[in-house]
Amino acid sequence: MNNDGNEQGISGGGAVRVNGGSASIINNTFACNRSAYVGTGGRGLGGGAIFSTGQCAITNNVFYDNRANNGWSVYAVVSGSATLSYCDAYNPGQSNTQANHYYSPGSVSNMMYSDPLFVDPGHWNDPGTPSDWSDDTWVNGDYHLQSDSPRIDQGTNTNAPAEDIDGNPRPVNVTCDMGAYEYMGQ
Questions:
Q1: Phi, psi of 29 (to 5 degrees)
Q2: Antiparallel, parallel or unpaired: β 118-120 and 142-145
Q3: Which helix (H) or strand (E) holds 142?
Q4: Which range of residues forms the domain containing residue 34?
Q5: Cα angle vertex 151, ends 28, 30, to 5°?
Q6: Cβ contacts of residue 144 below 8 Å, gap of 6+?
Q7: How many CA atoms lie within 13 A of 136 on its CB side?
Q8: Is residue 170 part of a domain?
Q9: Could you read off the pLDDT of 28-82 as tens digits, one per residue?
Q10: Cis preceding-peptide flag for 121 (omega within 30 of 0)
Q11: Does a structural domain hold residue 128?
Q12: Given CB 3.0 to 4.6 Å as the disulfide criterion, which of 47, 54, 125, 154 pairs with 75?
C-alpha cells in the first residue's frame, strides 16, 4: 500500500487506525500523513501514520514526513502494542530519533532514520499559514526508490509479499526493499 496525504481528526492515526485485535502491516509507504487538526494550530492524538489500540507487527515500511503530537510515525496506547522491524522513519528538517517517531509499549529493531530517497515525494502545499493545516492542499508524488536509495535490499523477506504495489516480483535481489515499491534497476 502506498498511503500519502491523509489527515485524521482528534482520534489519531493519519493513515491507519487499529482498534483492538491484531494487524500485520508489511511493505508499505506512509508519507505526509497528519494527525490531527483541531482548531488553528492544534494537534490531537499521535500516530501520524498509524494509531493502535491493538497488537501491530509493522515490518518493511517507510514512514516519511508524517506529523502528529506524539509518535510522528506510530503511536500505540497502553492497551495496545506495536512492534517495528526493518522500517525507516524520516521527517525532513527534524530530529529523526526513535523517541520522535515511535510511542508504544512494544519493541523496535533494525530501524533506520534517514532519507529514503524517493523519486519525487508528495507534499502539503502551505499557502503561508504553517500553524493552520485547514488551508493546505495535497500535491501527489512518486514514491519509487532512486538508484542510490539506502532502503534497497534492507528489508526482510520474512512474510513479505511476493509482489510490490506495481505487481513487480519481490525481492529483485537477495533481500526485499523497504516500502511499497521494489527497485527494479531502472
A1: -120, 120
A2: antiparallel
A3: strand 142-145
A4: 2-145
A5: 25
A6: 118, 119, 181, 183
A7: 22
A8: no
A9: 998 887 775 444 444 455 666 667 778 888 899 998 888 776 666 777 665 777 7
A10: no
A11: yes
A12: 47
> Cα(178)–Cα(60) distance, rounded to whole angstroms?
5
Distance, CA of 58 to CA of 70 (rounded, Å): 18
Residue partners of 150: CB distance under 8 A and separation at least 6: 88, 112, 114, 115, 116, 117
Cell triple for 185: 534497476
CA quadruple 122, 61, 19, 81: dihedral sign: negative
Q: Is residue 38 exposed (0-12), middle (13-18) or buried (19+ Cβ within 10 Å)?
A: middle
Nearest 5 degrees, angle CA 26-CA 178-CA 138? 85
- Please indicate, yes or no, if residue 42 is contained in any of the structural domains: yes
Q: Structurally, how many domains does the chain consist of?
A: 1
The reply to whether 115 falls in a domain is yes
pLDDT single digits (tens) 106-120? 788 998 989 999 999
CA distance 63 to 98: 12
* Cα(33)–Cα(50) distance, integer angstroms: 9
Q: Contact 107/98 with Cβ under 8 angstroms? A: no
96 close to 88: Cβ distance less than 8 angstroms: no
Which residues lie across from 159 on neighbouring strands? none
C-alpha cell at 46: 499521535
What's the grid cell of residue 39? 482548531
Contacts of 47 (CB under 8 A, 6+ apart): 12, 13, 14, 17, 35, 68, 70, 71, 73, 74, 75, 76
